[in-house]
Every structure is written in C-alpha cells, then in structure tokens.
C-alpha cells in the first residue's frame, strides 16, 4: 500500500492520514482555491490563521493519483506584508503571492503524480481547477512537532485523529454553470 512506502522515520511518530477521492468535472476544484498554508492554528474569535500563537508545526507527505488537478506550490523566497486586523489573511496573501510570482520571487511548481512529496506548514500552495473530467485521489500524511533547544519533539496530532469522512465536496467558481 502507499503507507508502506513512507520514509522509515515516519513510522516512529503518530500521524494523521487524510484521503480524498474526487470525481471532478472540468472547472471543479478538489479544495478551496487560493494560496494558503496547511495546519496553521486559527484564532478562535476571528477564524483567521494566527501565526503568532502557533504551539506546534507540521510537515506533510502528499501523494496524488490522477493528473486532472495537481496541487501547485509557490517556491522561492518572498516577504509578505503584515495583515491588518479584520482582514482575511489568505485573501491578502493570495494577491501578494500572485504578485511575487509575477515578479519572479516565487516560481509555481505542480505536484507530480504517483510520487510522495514533502512540504510543511509554511509551504504556500493552492488547489487548481480540473482541466478535464476525471478522477483524482489525494493522500496527505501529517506529523506534528515543537522545537526545544534546537531539537524536534514530536507531538500527538492536535486534531482530526481517526476521523473517517463519508463524503468529500468539490468547489466551483460559478456554481450556476451546472454539471
């Protein structure tokens, strides 16, 4: 199975396994579109990512089957502006990521299919719309840690442990376009 092919050190820690299988039609998104990070703690009052209150960090291995809508990563170095209170973090950072890409500070890479890839909670990425009608299978394995005296201390997963999803939604830019 896919999980039998994880790097050996991933067997030493508790993990969260998230899987999704989508039957996508052209222009459907397998996830909410827009540049963002995974597993960043959220402020309970605003629901926005709170990078200053992060008690843990995460790293992920992702595997895709089906090249209908590969996840895109913005790779390189970029400085983001502080987000004003009351502003949607990823709305602002999506626009800034697009600008960094336009200027060449960041380069877009699509995740390869049938290959494990590693990313973390500071890897800017986005889902893309399907270019054709097809199936897509996604698996993400996550582990969590803190840094103590320069060493990683792995943690129990903060949430979502042993959650079984019965359905997975898709997203559309124009839901009135129909199926």
Task: Please characterize this protein's 3D structure.
- With 179 residues, the chain is mainly β.
- It has one helix spanning 89-103; strands at residues 16-24, 28-29, 57-65, 72-76, 106-110, 117-120, 125-126, 134-148, 151-155, 171-172.
- The strands form three sheets. Strands 1, 3, 6, 8 and 9 form a five-stranded antiparallel β-sheet that branches. Strands 5-4-7 form a three-stranded antiparallel β-sheet, covered by helices on one side.
- A hairpin with a 2-residue loop joins strand 8 and strand 9.
- It is globular.
- The two termini are 33 Å apart.
- The model has no long low-confidence stretch (mean pLDDT 89).
**Largest sheet, strands/sense/barrel:** 5 strands, antiparallel
Q: Give the N-to-C terminal Cα separation.
A: 33 Å
> Helicity range of the residues?
under 10%
In DSSP terms (H or I, runs of 4 or more residues), the helix count works out at 1
Which percent band covers the strand fraction? Answer: 25-35%
Query: What is the oligomer described by this structure?
Result: single chain
Give me the secondary-structure category. mainly beta
**Which whole number gives the mean pLDDT?**
89
Please give the radius of gyration in angstroms.
17 Å
Shape assignment: globular
Low-pLDDT segments, ≥5 res: none
């Amino acid at each position: 199975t896919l999980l039998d092919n994880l790097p050996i050190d991933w067997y030493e820690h508790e993990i969260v396994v998230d899987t999704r299988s989508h039957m996508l039609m052209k222009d459907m998104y397998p996830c909410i579109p827009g540049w963002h990070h995974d597993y960043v703690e959220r402020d309970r009052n605003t629901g926005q990512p709170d990078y200053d209150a992060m008690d843990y960090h995460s790293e992920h291995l992702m595997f895709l089957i089906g090249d209908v809508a590969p996840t895109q990563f913005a790779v390189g170095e970029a400085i983001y502006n502080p987000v004003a209170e009351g502003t949607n973090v990823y709305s602002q950072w999506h626009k800034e990521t697009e600008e960094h890409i336009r200027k060449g500070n960041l380069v877009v890479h699509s995740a390869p299919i049938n290959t494990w890839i590693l990313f973390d909670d500071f890897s800017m990425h986005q889902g893309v719309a399907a270019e054709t009608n097809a199936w897509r299978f996604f698996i993400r394995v996550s582990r969590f840690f803190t840094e103590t005296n320069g060493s990683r201390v792995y943690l129990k997963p903060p949430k979502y442990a042993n959650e079984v999803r019965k359905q997975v939604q898709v997203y559309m830019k124009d839901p009135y376009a129909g199926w």
